[in-house]
Amino acid sequence: MPTDGIPSFHNPRLEAAIGWLAACGFLFLAVVTVVVGVQSRERAVTGAQERAQAAVRVLAEHAARLFDAADLLVEYAAQESAGRPWDEIAGSRELWDKLNAQRARLPFLDAVWLNDPSGLLRLTTVAFPTPYSDASDREAFLFHRKVTEGDRPHISQRIIGRVTNQPTFLLSRRLSEPGGSFRGMVSVTVDPSYLAGFYKTLDLPHEPVTILVRADDLSVLVREPVADPANPTPLSEFARQALRAPQGDGVVRDDAVIIAHRRVDSWPAHVVVQLDLAPVLATWRRLIAPYAGLAAAAALALMALSLFAFRQAQSARVVQLELERRVLERTASLERTIGERDAALAQKDLLMREVNHRIKNSLQVVSSLLGLQGQAVGDARLHGHLQEAGRRVQAIADIHRLLYRVDDVQFIPFHDYLTDLCRELERSAQSEGGGWRLDLAVEPLEVPTDHAVQLGLIANELVMNAIKHAYRPLVATPAAAGGARVATAEAASRNTIAVGLHADGGMLVLSVADRGVGLPSGFDWRQSRSLGMRLIHTLSDQLDATLSVENTAPGARFTIRLPREAMA
């Protein structure tokens, strides 16, 4: 807001610093919100996968026990019918009663069936005498007639029973003559509705689809829920590829569905749990909504604080311009007395002190709010970032604390400021459990006010960077208590950070050095994504200063060189 004949306020650095801090705060909130959202989404999907895997293990064990029990009944029927002529079997009420009594103990089985070599049904627990039925064209009968060795059990495709007219599937074995020739087939029909009912009792979240399939052709035996019990929907191509994969059991997913599958013990069947991702993500969105609202509230609070601080800085700049204009008017006026001029100058000084005092108070309020916000959040990383932001604001506030104490507001004793800053950082680090010690070697130097904020922030970032990264945490060795305390004290005495300030010819030199772990190989501070290093880089450019970084074996040294003529 320049006025004719009055020099303008050329360095509105405080507004720029507040703007940078606000922008970094908004960026940090956005990054945290995105990271938390992505991680919580992945946890929700992973949790659904784990629940599907747990369910499929239970279902596979259940199916294995069911098939084992059914196979025992098949073997019992084979033993009871062995050596008997088929006509005798067909007319044996005693055999029918035995088989029916055994079948009644297994509620998941519909009936026992005995077919002769031609496929003709000779005995069934469904009715006595046996109704007519021919199984010579059934897949299970053709399988056993074709197999010439062994009598391993076989699980058939899903069929519609010709006697019961109900959907079912068979667990069967081959009957052989003493010489090994084909004698017929014994089988039991498994009730798919019993399995479907068991699947319903599991009460799995997100309403998954539970499927039992044959291993040979992946045809569906049981599906729950199912729209058409007579013709259950076949497996999707994605599910088929998962079951044919070499690793066997496992879980796979794409953008729309999670599929967990498991082989049923030694039986040629698989259990599949298919879960749509849509309900999982809907639940995740409901759970994440409060955190998104919290992030929005934090962004609004940061915006309000930034606007408040920005307006305070603008007000201070306007007041300073007004004061300069008044001083020039009073100086130009030859009609005013020396006493009036002295009074005006005193008034200006008083107002300037009041302005800097208010700015200091406002920045301390911002720093305190950031600290309180950091204590209120549960995320350790977010807590640390808010604490660092509070320290940066406090570093600016300390500049203004000096401004209302010194006589000449154009310059401040930067060595006093640096000493107070380092001692405060040392106390803060030690209160958090660190073993650091700051060694100060500072010469009395005054710095223009419009350079003090940048230099103060740079000093704050360099010291905090050394505190956080120079030394690994102290670990006590497994020795006696007294020896452990001595070892820890010795280690702490070595964890020093040297801070220096001196004039070197025409240069002001600020250095921070440590004897810690040093910088990683290939480290380039210009490419660092750290907020602290980015602030140091930006503020150094604003001051036309040079920053040098070097490994000192051990440790590292950061040196800022600022031409003194640039501060004139």
Q: What report would you give on this structure?
A:
Residues 1-10 and 474-492 have low confidence and may be disordered. 52% of the residues lie in helices and 19% in strands. The chain has two domains: 38-289, 2-Layer Sandwich (Beta-Lactamase); 410-568, Histidine kinase-like ATPase, C-terminal domain (Heat Shock Protein 90), CATH 3.30.565. It contains 13 helices and 18 strands. The strands form four sheets. Strands 1, 2, 3, 4, 5 and 6 form a six-stranded antiparallel β-sheet that branches. It has a five-stranded antiparallel β-sheet with strand order 8-7-11-10-9, sandwiched between helices. The chain is of the alpha+beta class and 568 residues long. It has helices at residues 13-81, 86-91, 93-104, 139-146, 192-201, 237-244, 277-332, 338-376, 380-403, 414-431, 449-469, 481-494, 531-543, and strands at residues 109-115, 121-124, 154-155, 159-160, 167-176, 182-190, 209-214, 220-224, 250-253, 257-263, 269-276, 411-413, 437-442, 446-448, 496-504, 507-514, 546-551, 556-563. α10 (414-431) runs parallel beside α11. This is histidine kinase. The chain crosses the membrane at residues 17-38, 291-310.
